[in-house]
TrEMBL record:
Residue stretches making up the Pyruvate kinase C-terminal domain: 357-468
Catalytic activity: pyruvate + ATP = phosphoenolpyruvate + ADP + H(+)
EC main group: transferase
Classification via InterPro entries: Pyr_Knase (IPR001697), Pyrv/PenolPyrv_kinase-like_dom (IPR015813), Pyrv_kinase-like_dom_sf (IPR040442), Pyrv_Knase-like_insert_dom_sf (IPR011037), Pyrv_Knase_brl (IPR015793), Pyrv_Knase_C (IPR015795), Pyrv_Knase_C_sf (IPR036918), Pyrv_Knase_insert_dom_sf (IPR015806)
Name of this chain's protein: Pyruvate kinase
Origin organism lineage: Bacteria, Pseudomonadati, Pseudomonadota, Alphaproteobacteria, Rhodobacterales
Protein source organism: uncultured Rubellimicrobium sp
Keyword tags: ATP-binding, Glycolysis, Kinase, Magnesium, Metal-binding, Nucleotide-binding, Pyruvate, Transferase
Residue ranges annotated for the Pyruvate kinase barrel domain, each copy included: 5-323
Signal peptide interval: none
Gene3D superfamilies: Phosphoenolpyruvate-binding domains (3.20.20.60), PK beta-barrel domain-like (2.40.33.10), Pyruvate kinase, C-terminal domain (3.40.1380.20)
Family: Belongs to the pyruvate kinase family.
Gene Ontology molecular-function annotations: ATP binding; kinase activity; magnesium ion binding; potassium ion binding; pyruvate kinase activity
Amino acid sequence: MRRHRKIKIVATLGPASSTKEMIRILHEAGADVFRLNMSHGSHDDVAARHRAIREVEAEMGQPIAILADLQGPKLRVGVFGGEGAFDLEVGQPFRLDLNDAPGDATRVQLPHKEIFDALEPGASLLVNDGKIRLLVNDCGRDFANCTVTVGGTISNRKGVNVPDVVLPLAALSDKDRRDLEFVCELGVDWLALSFVQRVADVEEARSLAKGRAAILSKIEKPAAVKDFDGILAASDGIMVARGDLGVELPVQNVPPIQKRLVRKCRAAAKPVIVATQMLESMIESPVPTRAEVSDVATAIYEGADAIMLSAESAAGQFPREAVATMDAVAQEVESDPTYTQIIESSRSAHRTTVADGIVSAAREIAETTDVKAIACFSESGTTALLVARERPRVPIIALTSLEGTARRLSLTWGVDCVVSEPVDRFKHAVLAAIHAAVDQGYAQPTERIVVTAGVPFNTPGSTNILRVAPCQERLIYEGEPE
């Protein structure tokens, strides 16, 4: 099923979209990747959704990527006495401590010693997604005396954000480690890592995954923004998780951060997802707001690899309509001449390897002649990622004999993945590429494609050969003896 757009759509599964029938409907509407949110549902629920996705994949004959999103450590206040809620007013004192006695209007337990270890006077604490803000005046190993700077109602087990310090917490909780092992054994393609603060967080997840899934780091902490270059280098992909970023940073900081991170990911040839509240109103409405459509369009104009639906597809009343809306917006934006101008003007000119030169040449040839597609053989996915970094105007066909590689590449901008037979000779690669291009409607038998590969085959990062191939050559090759 050929998509008529380059950007990919990630749809989160949940109560509104857990059946095989709905998963198929969402895929047909435009979902390329399905996200399993490990914050909700049991392992049995996750396994059932995974199984349904794979059944739809088999029926559709097209690779589908599965992204398991790990919960990460959850920082929350304790419980309150009385009715479980109190109003805090601006200017009043409020204390957080390790005492497990029920809280009141003057104090509450914060059962996370690691926060007290890291706090310093002048730091901010945000409660309930930033609706309540506390300024730390004095703190120790088991307490923090604060002043309320933004008031509101505080209640049982509301979440806490600590934006001003790097917390001595690993990104993986005990639950996350159990979940990671479960989904890797299940056979997911991507692991989204929450609460990333430092490179070591990514390295720990990679050591536990043992190559069974690619690592995608969620950028949702100020510390991650600060150390982004290192985190990007250690990761296979990035998610710009704007929800928590907008809580822990001034909201006006998020748009320029989004643009900067997307460009860095593009330059590094690593896929990047823009996520959170993209079509939030469609949880309850069959149509989005104009502002939401503009937000989705902005991510597309920036050249992001994927845009993501969360509650819209997981728990909303209109999951199919939300996916279809994203698909329609993407097709409209990508048909705009301004889109092509923006994408091409923002290409990275930094090229240092033979592979860089080959994929750049492939893109130049495709855009200055009548070539209809770029086909690349890529067992590891590297060649396809480099071609996608060029953001060519023509379609990209990635051929690989590894089903896992094809699934992971389903997240990458403009890449149509085809699982092919293994090849050990370049002419066989050319023949397979021509068949894929013609069979999927990218080229007619009288037209041409560009084929790139690395010789010797099955050597990651060895892209070193380019061929402009007339599709009629398949008649010649098929008549040759082996």
